Amino acid sequence: MIQSQISPYWVSLRPQQWTKNLIVFAAPLFGFAITIDALVGSLLAFGLFCALSSGFYVVNDILDVAADRRHPLKCRRPIASGRIPLEVAWGLAIVLLGCSVTTGWFFSTGLGATLTAYAALQVAYNFKLKHTVILDVIAIATGFVLRAAGGAAATHILLSPWFLLCTAMLALFLAVEKRKAELRLQMSEGTTRTVLRHYSFSLLGRMEYTVTAGTVVTYALWSSGPKIQGASTPWMMLTLPFVLYGVFRYQLLSDPRQGEEKDNAPSTKLTERPEEVLLKDGPMLCTVVGWSLTVFIILWLKQSNLLM
User: Which of 44, 92, 113, 306 would staple 301 via disulfide (CB 3.0–4.6 Å)?
Assistant: First the structure.
């Protein structure tokens, strides 16, 4: 009985999407400054961004309740299905939003300012930007950059401008891929999203080419080393093949022809939720594990003074 009462509220927080907030750990990882203090600061930033983003997921579900009830999948969400009353949902959202931002300001001015900026962006996105072509994907990318900046503020570690640019390009890439999947889903199942009326596969394809090139180039520049304000060692270039494969693998999963070869187009449904690719696609998961192991080996060798 207790589990049945708690479950809808837990689901409404969308914990499966908290993987997006893992980017707050980028500051100590990519700054090669993994210490106890940095870990504590990153964990705090991660928790606050999870609470803040969950608060806005609840707000978004409240505002989109009518449209979600017409969606083949979103109609099952706790608020759309009526398992959580709207009054209770508003109370949950206010607590999450208020506590996360207040705690951030109490911890540090930089973290509080970043959380506030992220909250302002989410307000603009939920009320206007998600219905505005091009600005919708830019807003999504900005959210990722703010998460990375929040992690840097919480740990007092300065991030490379090339890394921040790479974060923005990668976030734009994922946002474009998400729109492609949503557009195919709308065409096949008749789902509704206002902004999709302004997109076409040809436009999204051209956008994809641009941000893919930007992602690879900015990551390559960052990994080239400290001479161009990049990583603290040029040995990070060894991780570039993982990034290339990961980007190409994601494009393969989002290819319409790939979806047509399988019943019910599972790849389409998968790439509508980018965070699930890391958890459900085997080759992508192996790529992330390989990239992570390579980074930690380089970090260990550098701290042992075995690398420049």
Answer: 306
Among 122, 166, 113, 165, smallest CA distance to 143 is for 122
Write phi, then psi, for 265 (nearest 5 degrees). Answer: 45, 65
C-alpha to C-alpha distances, 73 to 58, 70, 272, 286, nearest whole angstrom? 16, 9, 12, 29
* Spatial CB neighbours of 90, under 8 Å, sequence gap ≥ 6: 62
The upper half-sphere exposure of residue 283, i.e. CA atoms within 13 Å in the direction of its Cβ, equals 12
Q: Evaluate if pTM is beyond 0.70.
A: yes
DSSP 71: S
Which amino acid does the sequence have at 277?
V
Q: 165 is written with which tokens?
A: 């640019």
Measured distance CA(27)–CA(157) in Å, rounded: 6
Number of residues that this document lists for the chain: 308
The string of pLDDT tens digits covering residues 48-98 is 999 999 999 999 889 888 888 887 777 888 888 888 889 999 999 999 999
